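The protein record filed here:
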Amino acid sequence: MKTFADLTEREVLAVAIASEEEDSRIYMSFAEDLAERYPDSAKIFEQMAEEETGHRHMLLDMYQQRFGSHLPPIRREDVRGFLRRRPIWLTRNLPLDTIRREAETMELQAQTFYAKAAAQAQDVSVRKLLGDLAEMEKGHEHLAAKLTGDFLKSDDRVTEDRTRQRMFVLQYVQPGLAGLMDGSVSTLAPLFAAAFATHHNWQTFLVGLAASIGAGISMGFAEALSDDGSITGRGSPWLRGLTCGLMTALGGLGHTLPYLVPDGWPNAFWIATAIAGVVVFFELWAIAYIRARYMDTPFLQAVFQIVLGGVIVLGVGILIGGA
């Protein structure tokens, strides 16, 4: 993947053209989904789709003037720092609030991209066009913020509060949740494999401690290096990496600590294992709740995905350890 600073003006324009085309299609999908339930909101998305098409034509005209008719095959997925968008527009009958949050995120990212691209552009005409598009996308963001149950009653303060909440989710909840999921689930197999292979709590604790800390370091660096935050607005990469790493380690340590039960106690192994099993149960349900609360995942779907996955990993560890 290329970094944003490495993009030429030609590549910046090509990425912008492809992005505007994709965003226009997404907004039309939202409009079709909302047409029967919220016809007024659907019309706004149709208008936004038309405006994105207009932006694409402006960019194409500028590109042809500067570089001719051939577009290089580069998209935002090829540039480090862009958010991986969830294909929620493929789901029918989405809640209006979910669609609104997705649209706000899209427009904020587009605004940040154009502002950063304008600051980097050398050609005066390109700089002006990109700056104008940044202002247009900012207007779209405010428009998307009004797509709620109290349609057209949002004020600037409400919009700002929603922006801050969205940034909180992007900067802390997403990396923290990714770490918690990885730490809670990925350490189950080595921990319980060690437990049932040795039947010694202290040795099991050491294995769990090593797996938790190792996973935390790995996930922390992976998160920090994945996105510098300059386009997505996700904040400091090292802060996100620290959040992700700590939550990964905590996710693994939660069911590792019960194995501090001294080996000299009667039935010490089974006591520790029973406590660890209870901790795992609450960890998986907590992850499912956070996904449903902040990530727009239906609760039952989140429970099925997380709990089932955790049970499978746990079973693998027990089978391997008992072999």
